[in-house]
Amino acid sequence: MFGCVLSEKKNQTRIIVRHARSDRLSGELSRLRVDIVGLSETRRPGSGETSSVGYTYYWSGMSNGHRVRGVAIGISSKLQPSVVEVTPVDDRIMRVRMKHTLGFMSFVAVYAPTEMRKTEEKEMFYAKLDSVLDQCPPRDTLIVLGDFNATTGTVRDGYELCVGPHGSGTRNTNSYLLLNFARSRMLRIAGSWYQRPELHRWTWYSNAGGVAKEIDHILVSTRRILQNCRVYRSAEFFGTDDRLVVATLKLHVKSRRISRGNHTVFHLEKLKDLTCAHEYAAAKECIGERPRSRRGFVSTETLEKIEESRAARLAGNRDQHRALSRWTRTLLRRDKERYVRSLAEDVEGHLNANDLRPAYRALKKLRSKSPSRASAIRTADGRLVSDMDGQMARWAEYFGQLVTVDPPTEQLHTTGLQAVDADSPIDETAPSLDEVREAVAKLRGGKAAGVCNISAELSQSWG
User: Is this structure's pTM higher than 0.85?
Assistant: First the structure.
């Protein structure tokens, strides 16, 4: 999974690499204040977007419906208005373009083939990645978030511009493909420029725990925006052997803030006054604080198990961590089932009471939060088009081809065809009073009134 945190002036920008479930992922990203995240192995077919706990996720997967591979990019709700273009390419590459104060930046999430795959497949992947970067405007700031399945090595000869003095691992075929790609594109591998403890370096651990490597990387087009890059071991996800990689970038994102009108302004600087501070402390002790509502369906017991699992992993107790992870996944499934069952019971109760508004509100929670939709279309020659003008031109071309069809060359044979019987005439006689009463009695309550502004209940009360 890969990601970035972009913020305004005093805040910084962070980037990550790993896979996880959306609800738990959003909670961890919010805790670490990560604003942009890239994901690999999402295993979600097609392309589209969905929302979860303050984040919007755009994904790109297999076009044939198979749930393998897949990549995604998540954007926090405060930065989502800055997104200007989303281009899903295939199950290994996708791109998101955003606006910042000095221009634009393009984020590319990738999932490279492993070392065991054929060389032809690897070369085809990097050729397609090159073509995607060719579509980025030359003045864009490029950030490639990737599970490259490759180490950088420690020797910099020939790669001084893209590899820093703190590389790691032994090079193989994937390593040279990554390094040649970074050198040709003038991209810097962020992690290789910072000296870190090994616990903050290794992004992947084998199942047995005996092998650790740095194979997930963040590539940037300029080092001026890069401030730090390290692994965050405290991020707890399940079902993955990768660790969270976070890069801190110095970028100011231009988010369009919506004015809320009159709102309360808290003058916190007054707390520096000892008299005001004592009065605030006395009021807090007397009145107390409003407890924050826990969002989502995760129970307190499950949250405690998650913290225990995190502590076991940080302490290096792998057996205890595996046992707690399995138990936590069981608790999460239980909590989800209880939540869905509770919503279903609410829907049934409100429908039986003919209370439609809360019933439909609960139904809205049960269904998907947003429909799946692709953000790019293909031209006649197979190229991806994501800008609005290009898509409109392509749709006009497509429908033009549909209507400009050559007439049939053969004469249609009409011999032996029978004429269709005409419809029976419509009875235009005014309805009787009994028929009107019968129709009014069949009206369902709880529905919106028509143009006459008379509800069904009011009509039925007249007798």
Answer: no
